Amino acid sequence: MKLSVSATTRSPRFGELDGREYHFIERPEFEAMIANREFLEWAEVYGNLYGTPVSAVQDELDQGNDVILEIDVQGARSVREAMPEAVTIFVAPPSIAELAERLRVRGTDSDEVIDARLAEAAAEMNESGSFTFQIVNDDLGEAVRNAADIIERCRKERDT
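Above: the chain's sequence. Below: its structure in token form.
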């Protein structure tokens, strides 16, 4: 199983490394990749572009690996259109209030960005029913176990 590394035009945050958290690229290069249809999904989020390079995902699938994409609702919609066999898991916060607290404690965004993220999260939570599975991330350990159980169950169903 492999975690896909998305591309973005935003600047790295403290401690982030190119190729580990994201592939950090300039906007003109990203836009050229869009024009060349090199993304499985892409979106502009809070003024920055984010996308999943299709070649990296396909390379992993060709090697027999499952691939995890960490994407938003819009990206999941695009992936389902391109790959109807994809299994989607919506990871929800226990509440908008708890999400607000987590974002504020993280300390990487301005109040304006946090407010925009919270509004977007509320809208995205309304779309959780379009996902194959839903998990509430109230306790991280339990959420991880739930995700692992879902993945294992889907692998067994696929392989039988």
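The helical segments are 27-35, 54-62, 73-82, 96-106, 111-125, 140-159.
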